[in-house]
Write a structure and sequence with these properties.
This protein is an alpha/beta fold. 44% of the residues lie in helices and 16% in strands.
């Protein structure tokens, strides 16, 4: 049974929208985070799993097609799951077309895991939730590390500002939790908007954006008890 969560928290995708939203939308976003939907009604977990599997098993396109076939031939218990499978098939087709433009040849991907740690800022837990760790070796043989976050929404594509805010937080996550693997390479920190066919990397002007995030989290923490 889902009820209001006690401590302020927000997903990184919703925080990206919050930072560019109107006051009315900001209020709705906080309410949706405090009273989240049942996880079974999330629409794209199978697509995220399939893309992660594809990336971690050598980027063989046949893996994406196998997942599409599995979803297309499965029998589901209700209309919601049937529609979710169709959306995931569509998402995988969008990603299949986008992938060659991401420049990930020679990059090794590994799963982050089911419950990656959150970022803490101004009393708010930010659930960043990247899907894969990306690693490569530079010309001097040194390991370079990054992460990829998949974004799925047919009707709310990321704009440049939201995408860069999310990428900034993704880099902060990597610096906080993945530094033992090697130096963080910003060019390996990717936010991929699957349906829009776009990727976002962390901007160079990170300090100002992190200050914006700090103020937004302060606002979320202050409003949380009133939602």
């Amino acid at each position: 049974m889902n009820g209001p969560t006690e401590s302020p928290h927000v997903s990184v995708n919703k925080l990206g929208r919050y930072l560019t939203a109107t006051p009315a939308l900001r209020k709705r976003l906080i309410e949706a985070q405090k009273h989240p939907p049942d996880p079974q009604y999330l629409r794209y977990p199978e697509a995220a799993y399939a893309i992660t599997d594809f990336l971690c098993r050598g980027q063989d396109e046949s893996i994406l097609r196998q997942h599409q076939h599995r979803l297309a031939t499965s029998v589901f218990a209700d209309d919601f799951d049937t529609q979710r499978a169709r959306l995931c098939i569509e998402a995988l087709e969008h990603y299949r077309k986008l992938h060659p433009r991401l420049g990930l040849q020679g990059v090794v991907a590994s799963e982050v895991g089911d419950e990656p740690p959150a970022l803490q800022m101004a009393g708010v837990s930010i659930r960043v939730g990247p899907q894969v760790v990306l690693q490569t070796v530079d010309r001097n043989g040194h390991n370079k590390v990054g992460v990829m976050k998949l974004y799925f929404s047919k009707h709310h594509p990321l704009d440049e500002r939201s995408g860069q805010y999310i990428a900034t937080l993704l880099q902060a996550f990597a610096e906080q939790h993945l530094a033992p693997l090697g130096p963080i390479e910003p060019r390996l920190v990717r936010v991929v908007d699957v349906f829009a066919g776009k990727e976002f990397l962390p901007p160079k002007a990170r300090v100002r954006r992190l200050c914006d995030v700090q103020r937004a989290c302060e606002e979320i923490a202050a409003r949380w008890p009133m939602q």
